[in-house]
């Protein structure tokens, strides 16, 4: 259950804009650097079906290996405990969940990976627009930290190797692009972890499901 700290929320809203140059970048190698042997678990057929390969999209998407993902991060319908109205998207950075609030007192809950310490953010914003198979353009500040990204200064073409994955939701506060995104990433071991430079990541099948159900303009709360 999410407990919303309103004072922290107001402070976080300012922090979101102040740290907006963090940007997004996630790679499989960053997850492997955690160094631990993955724990595998049995996967019920209905869960395997939710995360099956997608072969009729613009690019093929492999099945997600859910034996690598703890059960609490599998997509499921749960009671809406967020206190937010229907249509809202709520990201709980402590428990690593994203909630899409429905109009029946329920919410769809997804497991997510979040930004590592130093790139975390919180506050209120909105989903300005959505993109299918988006380009990825690293911010200038990120290129300074990682000069090898210079070749992508004007964008990386969409596709399976693009770190934005098959779908992305673009987060704005007012008329300002925060440079944060909610997007896909195929590395199962990043779900439930704090690895990337600030963005919220879902498995490809989950970001497609969220993309298909959320509307542009929807309010976003990160706590």
Automatic annotation (TrEMBL):
Spans traversing the lipid bilayer: none
Entry's Gene Ontology molecular function annotations: glycosyltransferase activity; peptidoglycan L,D-transpeptidase activity
GO CC annotation terms, alphabetical: extracellular region
InterPro entries (alphabetical): LD-transpeptidase, LD_TPept_cat_dom, TAT_signal, Transpep_catalytic_dom
Keyword Transferase tagged: yes
Domain L,D-TPase catalytic: 87-223
Pathway info: Cell wall biogenesis; peptidoglycan biosynthesis
Active site per UniProt: 183, 199
Alphabetical UniProt keywords: Cell shape, Cell wall biogenesis/degradation, Glycosyltransferase, Hydrolase, Lipoprotein, Peptidoglycan synthesis, Signal, Transferase
Residues of the signal peptide: 1-24
Gene Ontology annotations of biological process type: cell wall organization; peptidoglycan-protein cross-linking; regulation of cell shape
Gene3D superfamilies membership: L,D-transpeptidase catalytic domain-like (2.40.440.10)
Family, per entry: Belongs to the YkuD family.
Name listed for the protein in its UniProt record: Lipoprotein-anchoring transpeptidase ErfK/SrfK
Organism: Devosia lucknowensis
């Amino acid at each position: 259950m999410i407990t919303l700290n309103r004072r922290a929320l107001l402070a976080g809203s300012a922090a979101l804009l102040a740290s907006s140059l963090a940007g997004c970048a996630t790679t499989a190698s960053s997850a492997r650097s955690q160094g631990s042997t993955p724990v595998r678990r049995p996967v019920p057929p209905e869960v395997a079906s939710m995360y099956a390969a997608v072969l009729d999209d613009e690019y093929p998407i492999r099945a997600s290996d859910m034996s690598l993902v703890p059960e609490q991060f599998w997509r499921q319908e749960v009671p809406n405990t967020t206190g937010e109205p229907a249509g809202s998207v709520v990201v709980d950075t402590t428990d690593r969940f994203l909630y899409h609030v429905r109009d029946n007192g329920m919410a769809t809950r997804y497991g997510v990976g979040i930004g590592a310490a130093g790139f975390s953010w919180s506050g209120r914003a909105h989903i300005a627009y959505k993109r299918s198979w988006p380009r990825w353009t690293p911010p200038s500040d990120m290129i300074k930290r990682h000069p090898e990204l210079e070749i992508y200064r004007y964008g990386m073409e969409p596709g399976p190797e693009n770190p934005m994955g098959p779908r992305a939701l673009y987060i704005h506060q007012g008329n300002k692009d925060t440079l944060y995104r909610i997007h896909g990433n195929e590395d199962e071991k990043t779900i439930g972890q704090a690895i990337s430079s600030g963005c919220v990541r879902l498995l490809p099948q989950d970001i497609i499901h969220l993309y298909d159900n959320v509307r542009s303009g929807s309010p976003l709360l990160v706590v």
